[in-house]
Amino acid sequence: MYPLANEVVLDNLDREQIKSVLANSRLMLLTSDREGSPQVFKEAMAAGLPVLSRNVGDVSVTSQYSPNAYVSNDEEFLDTALGILEKKERVSFDKSLLFNNLAVSSVCAKILEISHEC
Question: 8-16 — which CB contacts under 8 Å span 24+ positions?
Answer without folding.
Answer: 10/40
